[in-house]
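Write out a record, fold above all:
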Amino acid sequence: MKQLFLIVAIFGFSISFAQKLEYTDGKIFQDGEQLSSFETKNLMKTDLKALHLFKKAKTKESLGGFLLGLGIGGTVADLAMGLTSDVKYPTALTYAGVGLMAISIPILSGRKKMVQESVDIYNAGLQEQKKTLGDNFELNIVNNSNGVGLRINF
């Protein structure tokens, strides 16, 4: 049982160091591997401010993309109706589509900056990666309902 605990502890220690995130070309990478939005949200759960900012940016992206698509779709549909029938073109649908496209521009702007800021906040919250026993370790005596013990942080 002690050997199993030791193996699990060593394995847990080896993967416990968080890796920094990189935001390039609209994608988030960790150790050169691209992360999905779901994986990024799971990583950012430890830093609530970064997670909130990331979710806010993704909400802006979804809402702005929906409005842009709705505007383009309405304009194209009205154009198709105007070309295939005797209806006078442009109608109110075209103007509504152009309006939706115009509204989506300020909504979509600033989302990349928000994602970059959330990644920067997350990376700033990470502890320094180079941990050695020589200068960065703590030895504490702890007491809880199970008894007294030693806790080593390194």
